[in-house]
Design goal:
By secondary structure, the chain is α/β, with parallel strands linked by helices. It has helices spanning about 1-10, 20-30, 30-40, 65-75, 90-105, and strands spanning about 20, 45-50, 80-85. It is elongated, with a radius of gyration of 14 Å. It starts with a helix and ends in an 8-residue tail after the last helix.
Amino acid sequence: MDEAMEWVRRIASPAFSVMLDTYELAESEPSIEHGIRAGRGEARHIHLYDPSRWPPGIRTQTTLDWPQIFGLLRETGFAGSASVVLVPEGAAAPAAHKTAAFLRDVLGGSTGARQ
């Protein structure tokens, strides 16, 4: 993220920003918190993807602390969009409904998602 943010500063255009990806932040950054904070309000999209390869809210044992991640996004003023990978295998619809319910619960209301 530090390198990506250097490119954002060099290009200095409102049309150029960064995309956060929770899987990549967990794999490549010292911490997810470091990666989110390094975005310094320049991230316009976040891809919500657990290293288990399942979307948020599906597995009871996850490697990511989703409430903490969303708290950090709020704290850093993230106002962009988000996406999820629905399932690595099987039917997508049940996973989509479960993920949407989880996100509504964690985010404290409407996620803007349609069921």
